[in-house]
Amino acid sequence: MAKGHGCSGNTHTQQQRNDYSNQNNPNNHAHQANNDNHANQCNPNNSNYQGHGK
Questions:
Q1: Cα separation of 47 and 21, whole Å?
Q2: pTM for the predicted model, two decimal places
Q3: 11-16-17 Cα angle (round to 5)
Q4: Region 7-28: what's the mean pLDDT?
Q5: Cα 33 versus chain centre, distance
Q6: How much is the average pLDDT of 26-38?
Q7: Are 8 and 16 in contact (CB under 8 A)?
Q8: Where residue 33 falls among pLDDT bands split at 50, 70, 90?
């Protein structure tokens, strides 16, 4: 039985599985970049701020 939202080898390419793993691995640069981007978008002092009133 399949669990939640994992990646299945039957429906995703190897590259898609690699990308998913990288983005969800806290030791990976893609994961850290995603977190940094999110933090920047939530920080009103950052030029990438995506908050209310923009």
A1: 29
A2: 0.48
A3: 80
A4: 83
A5: 8
A6: 86
A7: no
A8: confident
Q: List the alpha helices (DSSP H) in the chain.
A: 14-23, 29-41
Cβ burial 18-50 (10 Å sphere, 16+ → b, else e): eeeeeeeeeeeeeeeeeeeeeeeeeeeeeeeee
Helix 29-41 × helix 14-23 angle, to 10° = 60
- 45 or 48, which is more confident: 45
Q: How many CB atoms lie within 10 A of CB 7?
A: 15
Can you read off the two tokens belonging to residue 11? 């429906």
